[in-house]
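User: Here's a structure from my thesis project, written as structure tokens. My advisor, Dr. K., wants to see whether a designed sequence matches the one we expressed. Can you design one independently, without my sequence as a hint?
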């Protein structure tokens, strides 16, 4: 009896040692492993895992091949018994994404400055989906109608104040030598300063 128990124990230990990594991991860990494996080749920028709908969404540089990634995903998913998951690929232009990130940082700092500066009371930043091609574009709205006699001079002062802010050392560290366009509009969306 003792020998039989030792034999069964030895077999169960041997079986446990031979268990593959895929069988040892929980589903969340398996999904992370799949994404990590793909990241080595495809430089995944962001990944979202929806285990309720069995979807993995990834953002990859537009220089990478979607077809080969789908093929590699199918192989890796099979290794981890995740064949029921689908891969959704979104290709991104890394240069454009970096410019958007940079100009979002600039406009966020500008927004904070506008909130604090009494000379900029009522000024709004428009078009937060920053257009960066071929250059960054910042659109500001003043709280005056274009027909208001004070609108033009207020727009001029706003432009001067904002340009001074954008030329500070902190902003120049972010902007560097990159060109941008600053436009000031009335609340009725008429261009007052460009």
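Assistant: Designed independently from the structure alone:
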């Amino acid at each position: 009896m003792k020998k039989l128990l030792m034999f069964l124990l030895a077999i169960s230990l041997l079986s446990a040692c031979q268990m593959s990594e895929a069988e040892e991991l929980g589903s969340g860990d398996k999904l992370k492993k799949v994404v990590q494996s793909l990241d080595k080749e495809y430089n995944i920028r962001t990944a979202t895992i929806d285990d309720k709908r069995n979807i993995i969404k990834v953002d990859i540089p537009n220089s990478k091949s979607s077809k080969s990634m789908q093929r590699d995903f199918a192989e890796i998913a099979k290794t981890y018994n995740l064949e029921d998951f689908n891969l959704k690929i979104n290709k991104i232009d890394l240069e454009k994404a970096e410019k958007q990130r940079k100009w979002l940082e600039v406009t966020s700092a500008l927004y904070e400055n506008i909130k604090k500066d009494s000379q900029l009371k009522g000024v709004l930043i428009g078009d937060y989906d920053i257009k960066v091609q071929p250059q960054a574009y910042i659109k500001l709205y003043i709280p005056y109608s274009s027909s208001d006699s004070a609108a033009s001079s207020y727009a001029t002062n706003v432009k001067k104040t904002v340009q001074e802010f954008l030329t500070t050392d902190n902003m120049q560290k972010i902007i560097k030598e990159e060109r941008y366009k600053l436009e000031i509009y009335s609340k009725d969306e008429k261009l007052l300063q460009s």
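When you compare it with your expressed construct, this may help: The radius of gyration is 28 Å.
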